[in-house]
Q: What sequence folds into this?
């Protein structure tokens, strides 16, 4: 059995001996010529794509983070709104816009 | 017929006849090498096309430091390995189907009495690491002299011998595991 197995393995390893070359399709050269005649497509290098994707992901994460913070704090609180109103009135009266 | 070096110089000047001459000289070698890697005809033809397009576009850069055949084989090996890498990268899109190569590849040039054994051999060649695969294909399928294989792979002759030894050991181990399956058939 071992002998038989060894013989088979030896035969398999030597099975490409005397192999003849296969021929590609006869139309292949014409295809290559047409390919060469066509304008060359400009490829964007993979690192450029990676940078663009990384930047987009970063912007998205920052937006998600900002929204989360906004939701957590429940938007502007009462004091902030009153302060905003007061400062607005002060600004108007300081510059006497409607007098 | 011109020498390959002269043909490359003519191609660098845009000579289409020289390009056809080079294709006639090397297309079978390129196609068969690619076929051993990808183990299917459409992909091997795609690689052959890519190799000749690359040769045409880079002919002016060929310095003549290596033989033309070494240069073309080197482009073929790199293109084939890149093709396999790309296919593997996108294989997840095939929903788990392994489409890297045909399950039972039959090389069209193998002698009739060796067909079954060669099928088993190509199946296990496919599992070898790239450097061992390249050394094995160039030495035993393409039947190139060891020195040329070393030049193509840009390593020493000793390194090639060692790669081939490891490749054979790996292949033997895998074939041993395949043997019981074979007996069941």
A:
């Amino acid at each position: 059995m071992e002998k038989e197995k060894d013989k088979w393995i030896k035969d398999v390893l030597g099975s490409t001996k005397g192999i003849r070359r296969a021929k590609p399709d006869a139309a292949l050269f014409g295809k290559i010529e047409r390919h060469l005649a066509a304008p060359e497509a400009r490829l964007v290098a993979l690192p450029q794509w990676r940078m663009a994707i990384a930047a987009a992901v970063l912007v998205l994460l920052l937006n998600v983070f900002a929204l989360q913070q906004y939701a957590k704090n429940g938007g502007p609180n009462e004091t902030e709104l009153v302060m905003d109103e007061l400062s607005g009135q002060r600004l108007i009266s300081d510059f006497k816009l409607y007098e | 017929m011109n020498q390959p070096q002269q043909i490359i110089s003519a191609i660098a000047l845009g000579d289409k006849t020289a390009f056809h001459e080079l294709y006639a000289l090397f297309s079978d070698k390129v196609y068969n090498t690619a076929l051993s890697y990808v183990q299917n005809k459409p992909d091997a033809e795609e690689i052959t096309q890519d190799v000749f397009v690359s040769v045409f576009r880079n002919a002016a850069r060929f310095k003549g430091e290596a033989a033309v055949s070494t240069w073309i084989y080197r482009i073929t090996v790199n293109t084939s390995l890149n093709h396999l890498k790309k296919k593997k990268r996108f294989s997840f899109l095939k929903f788990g189907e392994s489409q890297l190569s045909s399950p039972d590849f039959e090389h069209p040039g193998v002698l009739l009495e060796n067909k079954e054994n060669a099928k088993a051999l190509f199946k296990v060649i496919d599992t070898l690491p790239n450097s061992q695969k390249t050394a094995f294909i160039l030495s035993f399928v393409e039947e190139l002299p060891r020195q040329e294989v070393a030049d193509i792979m840009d390593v020493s002759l000793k390194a090639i011998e060692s790669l081939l030894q490891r490749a054979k050991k790996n292949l033997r181990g895998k074939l041993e595991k395949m043997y019981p399956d074979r007996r069941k058939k």
The interface with chain B takes residues 5, 8-9, 11-13, 15-25, 28-29, 31-33, 35-36 of chain A (CB under 8 Å).
